[in-house]
Amino acid sequence: MELTGEEKERQLKAYLELLKHPSISATGEGIRETSQLLRELMESLGVSSSIVETAGHPVVYGEYSVGGSSTLLIYNHYDVQPVDPLEEWTSDPFSAEVRGGRVYARGASDNKGTLVARLFGSVKAVREGKVNLKFLYEGEEEIGSPNLSSFVEANSGKLKANGVLMEGSSLDHRGRPLIVLGVKGLLYVQLDISTGERDLHSSNAPIVYNPAWEMIRVLSTLVEDGKVKIPGFYDKVRPLNEREREMLKDYDVSPEELMGSLRVERLRFDDPQRLREALFGEPTCTIDGIVSGYIGKGSKTVVPHKASVKMDFRLVPDQDPKEVLQLLRAHLNRVGFKGTLTEMGLERPMRTSPDTRLVRALEESAREVYGKNPVLVPNSAGTQPMGLFVELLGVKEVASAIGVGDPNSNAHAPNESIELDNFFKAVEHTSSFIKWYSSNVY
Ligand SMILES: [Zn+2]
Question: From ligand 1's centre to the CA of 408, what distance in Å?
Fold first, then answer.
């Protein structure tokens, strides 16, 4: 299903227009306008759509029914991460500049590129197919999907589908499409310690508590040599099985390539298979940010009055984020933490079967469009709300696939970008996928 010049022009125009609308879920900037714009785009393609309010930012929902016997639910999100540090961007993050064959913008890869490519590609194929389409575009993915599960629960009848195509995939270091069969889970928390109302002259240091030292003491009990020290943390971890370890061998990125794309000088392991198994199979505890006291220009002798840390735990099957939160709470009590712990997001980890009609159709279509075998991984290294679709809709066929990003896409970072050609490839991949999924060859 080669695209015509006219089709490409229309698709690119829609994509760039969406990128020019900020939709930062953390601040709410541009969310309303972008949801409207998206709804208009869907309507213009024949998708009957609506903006559905939630307790937070709205969901944009659409249906394209052809009276088929199967239904696919396509999930994407229209919100984006904040843009700072702005000074590190070469062009304005919302100007959607095309340079050297790449599109630069916040959301270029995560997730507007994928959203638009899959919308156009699926609608094009479904006109000839036998599969009904449902589209769920969330506006709060980048802040941990606080209202998605209640939305899915409240609309479980309407959302009923045979398969769910999640976002969160990309092309690998060899330009091969990744098919991701599951997700890591997440627990996000903030720790705060407060010892008074204001920073004090540091001559008071002998007689007052310093919250920065206290925070460091507590944090140092959480991780040692890359291992999480919270008792019970690893109890539910399901190790990768033989087939999953084999699968990962296809993800044959070298340590050098990884260091190049991550722009780091060292990795924690030298052995490539060890790296892969850690990336996809190990849970982590990460300090995302830490602040206390004075770190401005020059010197200032103070005892800070508060210290704060944001942390995430990436979890693997079968860890339960709620249980991990309890374990963390118990651990903090044990080590005498005298601050507050605030939970800021929970997502379940999961892995699904590679032996489904959905995954086979993804593999066949990937070969057809890219001329290469796709790479399957048992779960993503990151997180997305895949688990709740399986749980609340009872869907068995689910995967993250068909993404426009590549290892240099800088999602969440300055100068986010994609290869423009990969945008059109994703449109074609989606069309071909719908065709394979519709056919009864399985
Ligand atoms: Zn993201």
Answer: 15
